[in-house]
């Protein structure tokens, strides 16, 4: 928002310097980007009147003039501007004047004619206006007056970078209110004679989308003279606000845009057909904009249409078909309140961003439209003449915003700000902000004014009090905090311990997005019912992940495409599952997942190179599970998973309850996902790692241990884990170690059989075991294996 300081000072007076004012509003949360002079540095330039203007005898493009500057003698000045003429009021740089660029005016002769001064254009005075020829001043400009004084050029334009919530300051009125509150100065609005209706002219208006447009005002104005120029004071205010003067109607609507922050639009009444309807556009409905571009409208776009189709993109851009032109004499002036959500993002969908959409997206005062309509009508009648009909209003009270009282607690205010502000000062701040304040036992109740639509909760009131009180007035105090030890279960398996372990085993931690490509996720989990985002960052990030697999696989593909053949990654994060019983219908579960691909180890002269397989990752996962000190409560059994190889997939269980999966990526998915080599993955529910057991120290036995090896022949479908479980059950307390060290299938072994070589370590803490006891324990183990698993000793 760019504004002229002098214009704001018409509303609220302050003696602050330009820089002091900029600093003040910056500290109040309205950051100033720039403070720029509205004109260049010059002096001795006054208002003059061209008394005579004739053709130069020796130059076709020059004119010889005599100019009255309020002195005894007329000045002879040669001018080359095509718009120079007798009776014109002009800006005259007298002899001795210094113009921008340190250019000094001296007496001279141009083609033999004396020239004692210069008639100035805007650019020659360092004023940023696109205009041909010299400046044309109003006919009532007093001759001899210093032009800096007459045009109030000792002024600055202040450019403020507003946060999206402060749309109330997208106008002079809002900025003036803000400055008034900061300086405890009353704001004085401009006054004008109300524009009463003098004709009965009307136009039918209907609103089909009241939720999008709760209030729509229209007014017919006839007999306008569009050849009338906007007054210079209006052109200057627009210029200093960053808007170029175009014609009277556009200038007036832009003037109200800057003054009150309320966008307006004018239709050529003769070009409207039937009635005006505020509705949603039809799909692919064509419309030609004022700039000549043709667009195909979307169904979400709000339009103002007549019998021939869309006449305007509501709150965004006018249509070319009903636009005002030089031949227009009668107009329908509109002023509306559009719900912010009905405009938000609509302009960007067409590659547009206008001053109107910028304001409507952030919000305008829903009670402002009648005032602005009357103000605009009065300016139009004063500048262009004509007669106005009555104001036509269509509104829906049900859909208009309504403010609710907000409670501000004294205790909460003091806690957040850190100091206590006097009750009287709190009330004064809120009252000056336009709120209706009621004192309560433990604080206050405040009702925000219609223009502060950003204030809705208690924290908003606290922010306003702190902001107006002054952040720089809040003392710098070191916070006092007492430290207390947080109770934590000793057996807790923290995520830090898991991370440290996996990093120590050669993994790197990955952090991937919770939003994933729905196509990739559907490939991995065809039965998943993923949550699709209504407004995604992109199509490739439009679904919430149901597993960490998707992101990790994409991370591996990314690395492989950059010549990284060996990748070991893990990630800890949330997955999102639809669940009617969960809050908001979404269950968020913390998960731990890992993936390995490429060789098991880096190339080494003493290590045989081989690809990583299922058991490599299984060993890493078992190390994580062992952090619980209850490794025996976890087990692996054959399982199925849509993303994993059907023959190389296992369920991870704890006390018989499934808590995750581990397996090799399904071979049919490798190319689809872009993987260059086989990948092995695991994923488990992180909260199932608790409870963990605190390890207890025990004395090491001083008696010798005895190892016995047995080779068992079992059916191929018998799992080694089941064999080990039987041995543990039968072995008793003296069995302190068990290890599967060989599996054999081949020559000398039936096709449906396999051989398992297992070592048993027996030891007692109180005595040396005798050979008879050891043999008896081994016999019991072999007997139990035969009875339960049909196992026999290998010959």
Description:
With 795 residues, the protein is of the alpha+beta class. The chain has 20 helices and 38 strands. A seven-stranded mixed sheet has the order 26-29-30-34-33-32-31, sandwiched between helices. Strands 3, 4, 5, 6, 7 and 10 form a six-stranded antiparallel sheet that branches. A hairpin with a 2-residue loop joins strand 24 (436-440) and strand 25 (443-447). Helix 19 (720-731) crosses helix 20 (771-789). The protein is elongated.
How would the global form be characterised?
A: elongated
Provide the structure class. Answer: alpha+beta
- Note the beta-strand portion: 25-35%
Number of helices: 20
Q: How helix-rich are the residues, as a percent range?
A: 10-25%
Q: What is the CA–CA distance across the termini?
A: 93 Å
Low-confidence parts = none
* pLDDT averaged residue by residue: 92
Rg calc: 42 Å
Key phrases:
795 residues, alpha+beta, 38 strands, 28% strand, elongated
Provide a quick synopsis of the model.
By secondary structure, the chain is α+β, with helices and mostly antiparallel strands.
What is the strand and helix layout of this fold?
Elements: E1 2-4, H1 5-11, H2 18-27, E2 31-37, E3 43-55, E4 63-68, E5 75-79, E6 89-99, E7 103-104, E8 108-110, E9 113-115, E10 118-119, H3 147-150, E11 156-161, H4 172-183, E12 205-207, E13 215-222, H5 232-240, H6 248-260, E14 265-268, E15 276-280, E16 285-288, E17 294-297, E18 302-306, E19 309-313, E20 317-318, E21 331-337, H7 340-343, H8 346-349, H9 355-362, H10 369-384, E22 387-395, E23 406-409, H11 410-417, H12 423-432, E24 436-440, E25 443-447, H13 458-469, H14 495-504, E26 508-509, E27 515-516, H15 518-524, E28 543-544, H16 549-560, E29 567-578, E30 586-597, H17 614-625, E31 634-638, E32 644-654, E33 657-665, H18 670-673, E34 679-685, E35 706-715, H19 720-731, E36 735-744, E37 753-762, H20 771-789, E38 792-793
Parallel strand pairs: 12-15, 26-29
Antiparallel strand pairs: 1-11, 2-11, 3-4, 3-6, 4-5, 6-7, 6-10, 8-9, 13-21, 13-22, 14-21, 15-18, 16-17, 18-19, 19-20, 23-25, 24-25, 27-28, 29-30, 30-34, 31-32, 32-33, 33-34, 35-37, 35-38, 36-37
């Amino acid at each position: 928002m760019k504004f002229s300081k002098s214009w704001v000072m018409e509303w609220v007076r302050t003696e602050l310097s330009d820089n002091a004012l900029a600093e003040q509003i910056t500290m109040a949360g309205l950051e100033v980007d720039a403070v720029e002079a509205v004109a260049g540095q010059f002096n001795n330039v006054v208002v003059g009147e061209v008394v005579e203007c004739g053709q130069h005898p020796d130059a076709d493009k020059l004119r010889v003039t005599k100019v009255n500057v309020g002195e005894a003698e007329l000045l002879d000045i040669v001018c080359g501007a095509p718009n120079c003429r007798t009776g014109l009021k002009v800006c005259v740089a007298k002899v001795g004047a210094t113009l921008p660029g340190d250019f000094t005016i001296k007496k001279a002769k141009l083609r033999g004619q004396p020239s004692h001064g210069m008639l100035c254009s805007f650019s020659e005075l360092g004023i940023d206006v696109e205009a041909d020829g010299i400046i044309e001043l109003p006919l009532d400009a007093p001759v001899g007056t210093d032009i800096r004084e007459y045009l109030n050029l000792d002024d600055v334009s202040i450019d403020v970078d507003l946060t999206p919530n402060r749309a109330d300051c997208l106008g002079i009125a809002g900025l003036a209110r803000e400055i008034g509150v900061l300086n405890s100065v009353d704001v004085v609005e401009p006054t004008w004679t109300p524009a009463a209706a003098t004709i009965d002219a009307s136009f039918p208006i209907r609103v089909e989308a009241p939720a999008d447009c709760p209030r729509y005002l229209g007014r017919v104005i006839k007999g306008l003279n569009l050849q009338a120029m906007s007054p210079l004071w209006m052109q200057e205010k627009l210029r200093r606000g960053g808007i170029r003067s175009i014609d009277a109607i556009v200038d007036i609507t832009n003037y109200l845009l800057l003054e009150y922050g309320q966008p307006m639009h004018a239709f050529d009444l003769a070009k409207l057909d039937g009635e005006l309807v505020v509705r949603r556009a039809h799909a692919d409905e064509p419309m030609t904009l004022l700039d000549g571009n043709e667009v195909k409208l979307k169904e979400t776009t709000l339009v103002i249409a007549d019998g021939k189709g869309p006449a305007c993109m509501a709150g965004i851009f006018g249509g070319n078909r009903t636009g005002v032109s030089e031949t227009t004499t009668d107009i329908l002036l509109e002023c509306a309140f559009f719900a912010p959500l009905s405009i938000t993002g609509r302009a960007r969908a067409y590659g547009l961003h206008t001053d109107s959409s910028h304001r409507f997206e952030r919000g305008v005062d829903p009670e402002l439209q009648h005032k602005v309509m009357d103000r605009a009508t009065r300016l139009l009648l004063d500048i262009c003449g004509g007669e106005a009909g009555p104001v036509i209003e269509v509104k829906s009270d049900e859909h208009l915003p309504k403010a609710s009282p907000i409670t501000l607690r004294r205790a909460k205010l003091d806690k957040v700000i850190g100091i206590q502000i006097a009750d009287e000062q709190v009330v004064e701040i809120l009252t000056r902000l336009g709120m209706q304040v009621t004192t309560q036992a433990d604080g206050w109740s405040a009702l925000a004014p219609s223009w502060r639509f950003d204030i809705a909760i208690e924290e908003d009131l606290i922010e306003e009090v702190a902001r107006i009180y002054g952040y720089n007035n809040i003392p710098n105090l070191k916070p006092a905090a007492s430290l207390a030890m947080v109770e934590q279960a000793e057996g807790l398996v923290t995520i830090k311990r898991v991370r440290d372990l996996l990093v120590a085993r050669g993994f790197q931690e990955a952090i991937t997005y919770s939003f994933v490509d729905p196509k990739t996720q559907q490939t991995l989990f065809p039965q998943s019912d993923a949550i699709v985002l209504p407004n995604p960052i992109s199509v490739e990030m439009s679904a919430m992940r149901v597993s960490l697999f998707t992101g990790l696989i994409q991370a591996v593909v990314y690395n492989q495409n950059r010549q990284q053949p060996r990748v070991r990654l893990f990630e800890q994060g949330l997955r999102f599952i639809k669940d009617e019983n969960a809050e908001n219908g979404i269950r968020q579960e913390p998960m731990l997942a890992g993936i390995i691909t490429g060789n098991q180890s880096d190339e080494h002269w003493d290590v045989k190179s081989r690809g990583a397989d299922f058991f490599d990752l299984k060993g890493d996962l078992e190390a994580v599970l062992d952090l619980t000190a209850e490794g025996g409560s976890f087990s692996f059994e054959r399982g199925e998973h849509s993303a994993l190889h059907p023959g190389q997939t296992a369920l991870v269980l704890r006390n018989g309850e499934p808590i995750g999966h581990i397996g090799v990526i399904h071979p049919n998915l490798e190319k689809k996902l872009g993987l260059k080599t086989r990948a092995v993955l695991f994923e488990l529910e992180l909260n199932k790692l608790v409870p963990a057991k605190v390890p207890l120290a025990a004395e090491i036995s001083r008696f010798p241990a005895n190892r016995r090896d047995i080779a068992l022949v079992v059916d191929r479908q018998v799992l080694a884990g089941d064999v080990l479980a039987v041995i543990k059950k039968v072995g008793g307390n003296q069995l302190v170690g068990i290890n599967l060290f060989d599996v054999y299938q081949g020559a000398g072994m039936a096709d449906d059989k396999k051989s398992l070589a297992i070592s048993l370590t027996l030891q007692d803490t109180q005595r040396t075991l005798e050979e008879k006891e050891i043999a008896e324990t081994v016999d019991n183990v072999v007997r139990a294996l035969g009875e339960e698993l049909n196992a026999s000793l290998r010959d």
